[in-house]
Design goal:
Layout: E1 9-13, H1 18-29, E2 33-38, H2 41-54, E3 61-65, H3 71-80, E4 86-89, H4 104-132, E5 135-140, H5 153-169, E6 179-186, H6 192-205, H7 209-218, H8 228-238, E7 250-253
Parallel strand pairs: 1-2, 1-4, 2-3, 4-5, 5-6, 6-7
């Protein structure tokens, strides 16, 4: 299927690896020009090289090593390019723990990265999209928005705040001007972050990592973890012309792990 977005320009955050990279990969394979952003220069350069090798239709790949969660980082991005047709917001989740141990600084950091940064990126780009008659914004959030995870209270709170904000702005006047805003909620995907989480849990319980990894997969109806590539394919569809009638939605990709009906 031709997604109808070849030649468009996308900003993809947290794109040096994992789910952000999967989204950037799917977009360049559709002929979309991408600007990828992440903090680590070495990993970003490696990702850019892989993306250039996979790009089709003459799509270009630019890379900027900066912290998108800071005002200075966002200023660097918009100094390089002001307008984008597609924006994929993504930032690493806050650390797990007991809410009793989190002080105000921990909460502010979580909200700043996982709620306020996407809002700032939306604010900076959505009006230009509306004026041009096309725009796609996809926020990578978490399945914990649908099914909260006790030890991820910082993420539950910050991402739920973003979800509430998007529910309103996605249904504002921009919806009639060709702009959609959706959230993409990942469950368990085979990324470095998940490996670190499983490894940490295994060490605490004295369990072998491979056994813990396998046991975790068995809890998912699909009996496996998702891949960044298939996550990216969902993201690319949400950015497509065909998805123009979908906005304000929370699209859950979790292999059937969420047990609810709605």
């Amino acid at each position: 299927m031709d997604l109808g977005i070849a030649g468009r320009t996308a900003l993809v955050c947290g794109a040096s690896k994992g789910l952000g990279f999967g989204c950037a990969l799917a977009l360049v394979q559709e002929g979309v020009n991408v600007l990828i952003v992440a903090r680590g220069q070495e990993a970003l350069d490696s990702a850019a090289a892989q993306l250039r090798a996979s790009a089709t239709g003459g799509a270009t790949v630019r890379a900027l090593a900066t912290d998108i969660t800071t005002e200075a980082g966002r200023a660097q991005v918009f100094a390089l390019q002001r307008d984008f047709d597609i924006v994929v917001t993504n930032a690493g989740g806050p650390p797990p723990g007991d809410f009793r141990d989190w002080d105000r600084e921990a909460w502010i950091k979580a909200v700043d990265a996982n709620m306020l940064t996407p809002i700032e990126l939306i604010k900076a780009t959505v009006d230009g999209m509306a004026q041009r008659g096309f725009g796609r914004i996809v926020n990578i959030t978490s399945s914990s928005v649908k099914s909260p995870i006790n030890i991820l209270g910082l993420s539950n709170g910050a991402r739920s705040g973003l979800t509430g904000f998007v529910a309103g702005v996605a249904r504002s006047a921009v919806a009639a001007k060709g702009v959609t805003i959706n959230n993409l909620l990942p469950g368990s995907f085979a990324t470095d972050r998940l490996k670190t989480t499983v490894k940490s849990g295994a060490q605490k319980s004295g369990e072998d990592f491979d056994a813990a990894w396998e046991a975790r997969q068995k809890t998912i109806p699909a009996k496996r973890f998702g891949t960044p590539e298939e996550f990216g394919a969902i993201c690319a569809f949400l950015c497509s012309m065909q998805a123009g009638y979908m906005t304000g939605q929370n699209v859950l990709a979790d292999g059937g792990a969420y047990p609810g009906t709605y």
